[in-house]
Amino acid sequence: MRKIVSILLLIIVAFGIIRALVEIPFGTLKTEVGRYYIEKGVEETGAVNIVTSVVVNYRAFDTLGEIVVLFIAAIGLGAVLRTGREKKTRDVQPASLILFTGCRFLFPFILILGIYIFIHGHLTPGGGFQGGAIIASGFLLIYLGCKERRISRVASHIAESLGGLVFLGIGLLGLVFGSYFLFNFLPMGTANTLFSAGVIPIIYIAIGFKVGSELAGILDNLIEES
Amino acid sequence: MSFLNSYIYYIGAFGLILIGLYIMLVKHNLIKVIVGLGILDTGVNLFLISVGYITKGTAPIFSKPGIDSQQMVDPVPQALVLTAIVIGVAVLALALSLAIRLYQHYRTLDLREIKEQRW
Questions:
Q1: Which tens digits make up the pLDDT trace of A105-121?
Q2: Does B103 contact chain A (CB < 8 Å)?
Q3: Domain limits of chain B?
């Protein structure tokens, strides 16, 4: 009964989506604003990666909201999982030598790759979110391979708070030096060099720290407290 | 064939959305419902990216001078999806933590026994 009702519902939904999709041609540019960002993005923001200039400059307020959503999800996870009850100690089998050594060998390189990706977010495909996810994957590797190693919660909280505060502080400085919140008040520099695009690299580094430490904290909560 | 060429991404995204919805509606295991949520999320992301695609398009990055800006794909959906992926991961983690708590309380992941519903 449940299956039949679900399939009927899905057919109705599918019909609606197909009717909508037929009207959307594939492979043509549809938004005026996308064309505007491509034409004017480099001279207005100084970042050669247009996606970055949209995320961190044109729609930086949106990105601030997204980071708040991520933060609230991390808080909710911690609140749900951490009960303060006495945990049962599980007997954990140590990882094999190859896994242990491999983790310890790979971890710094994964961190460096993540940091490279969020520092060069305005030049190459990448940015704070991607770099932060890579850093968190490095911590996941440590959790899987070297079970006795833990990230320090204090350090992770400091990195997280600093990331958020730097983002907000730059936004407020934009209000001081310029005309609106998150105003790009630093000099643009020459495009396609590392020190260009004003506040964009600084904001992306802050986002990278925040996302990386938040996802690592989520992993830490899921592994420790469950 | 040209239909398939021009609509293959839409069909894929659409299929993922429907599969995810079906799993969320039909399955009783909470972990499977969360997996369905993840598949639905992926489908929506793929759909947004494919709406912004241009035939023979390149990434919207002026990495070297002389790149044809007419061939660049739409950056707006990419910027949206970029953050949506990370938010999706966080939401999945939150849902999994709730599943862990439910399992510790009820000792089962079957939604029929958790909600005590019959239909």
A1: 888 999 999 999 888 88
A2: no
A3: 2-55+71-115
Find the domain containing A171 and state its range.
2-225
What confidence category does residue A50 fall into, taking pLDDT thresholds of 50, 70 and 90? confident
Q: pLDDT tens-digit profile of B52-75?
A: 888 777 788 887 777 777 778 888
Task: Count Cβ atoms within 10 A of the Cβ of residue A125 and give its class: 0-12 exposed, 13-18 middle, 19 or more buried.
Answer: middle
Q: Does residue B3 carry a pLDDT above 70?
A: no
For chains A and B, CB pairs below 8 A equal 148
Report the residue from A6, A123, A129 with minimal CB separation from B83: A129
Contacts of B63 in chain A (CB under 8 A): 48, 123-124, 192
pTM of the model: 0.82
Helix axes A200-225, A97-119, angle to 10 degrees: 150
What domain count does chain A have?
1
Dig out the tokens for A157 from the structure.
């909280």
CATH level 2 (architecture), domain B2-55+71-115: Orthogonal Bundle (1.10)
Cβ count within 10 A of residue A200: 26
